[in-house]
Design brief:
- The structure is a single chain.
- With 116 residues, the chain is α+β, with helices and mostly antiparallel strands.
- It has a 3-stranded antiparallel sheet, covered by helices on one side.
- Helix 2 packs across helix 3.
- The relative contact order is 0.17.
Length: 116
């Protein structure tokens, strides 16, 4: 009986950890151009456990494939904000936002209109 219980627990542990290897998620990230895209994707892909990222200029959606045992979407959102781009959960500091290129000032209505 003990062997059976041990095997069941071992199997469940392996099954649960295997499911977390390729978690998928998405975040809304503010930006306006391809320079923003490059900055957002570069910030996100640097995180340990992130395997793939793709941000859309049109939808502002960042799709992420990551190892949930090593990171999570909140960490991705935090790093993107550190790079200067707002997400729903984290706002970039003024210092980080002001460091982005002038054409990337997504909080400025005139810049946003210029990119439409």
């Amino acid at each position: 009986m003990k062997k059976l219980m041990t095997l069941v627990v071992l199997f469940m542990t392996i099954s649960l950890s295997a499911q977390d290897k390729n978690a998928k998620g998405s975040l809304e990230v503010d930006g306006v151009c391809n320079m923003c895209k490059a900055r957002i994707e570069k910030a996100a892909i640097k995180i340990t456990g992130v395997k793939s990222v793709k941000w859309s200029v049109e939808t502002h959606k960042l799709d992420v494939i990551y190892d949930a045992r090593k990171t999570n979407l909140d960490s991705v959102a935090k790093y993107v904000a550190i790079a200067g781009h707002d997400t729903k959960k984290f706002t970039a500091t003024d210092e980080a936002y002001n460091a982005v290129n002038p054409c990337c000032k997504y909080r400025d209505e005139e810049v946003v209109k210029a990119h439409q």
